[in-house]
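User: My advisor, Dr. K., asked me to get a structural model of this assembly before our group meeting. I'm new to this, so sorry if the format is off. These are the inputs:
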Amino acid sequence: MNGILAPLVTGIAQGSMIALIALGYSMVYGVLKLINFAHSEIFMMGSFFGLFALQHFAGLNPVLATALAMILAMFGTSLLGITVERFAYRPLRGRGKSSLLRITPLVTALGASVFLQNLAQLLFTARQRPYPRLFAQTRPLIFATAVVVMIALELVVKRTWFGKAMRALSTNEEAARLMGIRTSRVIGITFAIGSSLAALGAILYCLDQGDAYPTMGVGIGTRAFVAAVLGGIGSIPGAMLGGLLLGVLGELVKFSGFEGSVDIPVFIVLIAVLLVRPAGLLGSTRAEKV
Amino acid sequence: MRIAHPTRALRTKTGTPLLSIEGLEVHYGGIRALKGISLSIDQGEIVSVIGANGAGKTTTLKTISRLLPITAGTIRYDDRDLGAMSTEEVVEAGISLVPEGRAIFPNLTVRENLELGAFHHKHRQTMAETMEDVTKLFPRLGERLGQDGGTLSGGEQQMLAIGRALMARPSLLLLDEPSLGIAPKLAQQIFAAIRTIAEAGMTILLVEQNTRLALSVSRRAYVLRTGEVSLEGDAKDLAKNEEIQKAYLGGV
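Assistant: The format is fine. Below is the predicted structure of the whole assembly, which you can bring to the meeting.
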């Protein structure tokens, strides 16, 4: 492959991984109107869980080992995500004066992020741990996983009771409760799904290009957060679109020979989009009741 | 119109109160919004609560649905204490609220809105049957099942909100200002539907600013004034009451 095609393909692969992480930000924002800054650390933890699992399954067929590692890491991050929600966010829900109602959980999210990063340094040390090179080509795996996840997620959101409850909760919490929806349960499951997608993204990312280390969530997490905002935070298709756009854009920037950081043009695009569409590309433009 | 819940039978016998509120006090936004009100509804009755803005009508309904905390007093429903229940449990016990301002889910389709009404039982056959009844009651909804709820007109959204509440197969329906902000012709249609629902045997507690409409469908009524019950009685008698005529019926 040569010319512009190569960066496009790389960009879509990169973008799919970013999208998997962006979905977690967007889904949680949808139900809680909270930017879960700890999500990037869930991603980081997912890459460690995946690494340990892969080391454990070292003798197995690489595809099988990867599949098992994915399942275990998804399970681990789900528990972690639910725990963060249960102990960091839930006690604050509905508390405080109206002006602080959103700020307090936001600060707590930052705190949870710092806590998890330091916990990882304590547990795993700060050194970079290389992932095993299991596949000569990781892109087919990335594409396949991303497509399966997006279709599955679409089905869950559109067809299941949980999906309907989640969408109802994100539009009107009080009305959702009047339907008999147990909102705490829906929030917990949303955290579990978002966190397990972050684990998937983490394993794919590390298999493709990297090591696992405690501060790895910062860079990727920021990118994924930007993708979620670009696509319209709270919107699931928006997170997918934002991720893909960001991935392709990043690779095109490299291809163009631009020598600065990829983040500069990415943020220029973000600002430009938000100036025209403050709610993001696919975000709801309906005025939010406060 | 099928209204009884297929699996949940009421313990209350006809003629005894299905819901009874005693000495209910509620603080809302720093104000003592209800100052010890008492009211009761028998099974199969349609009772309205009328009064000016800020009298505590919506507060009463929201407290029954356990969206607001109780300061003092009791709410008993079918032999149970609602004070100890959550909103979700109240719905499961058979009380559905059609909230003020409708609160439909605008980005979900009409069908999905209705399905969510059945969330607490998720019983397929009951859902299909009730959906059929609801679309018979409100043919406009039947024509718009695939449309997003947000694309409906105000009156249609009110129909959707009532339909969604019926999908829960409640034993007691709480209606908060069903005529608010709706064209008079559609309001008439909605009240005709409320009458149909009542005739099928539904117990209804109706909160309404449009006193004339409210009294025309109700058997009994309570008049709330700044958090207290100032008058109660037969709807027909109240409609003739001079004080009511002056205060709420434009002095006819």
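One thing worth pointing out at the meeting: The interface with chain A takes residues 65, 67, 87-88, 91-92, 96-97, 99, 103-108, 112, 115-117, 119-120, 122, 150, 164, 168 of chain B (CB under 8 Å).

User: Perfect, thanks a lot.
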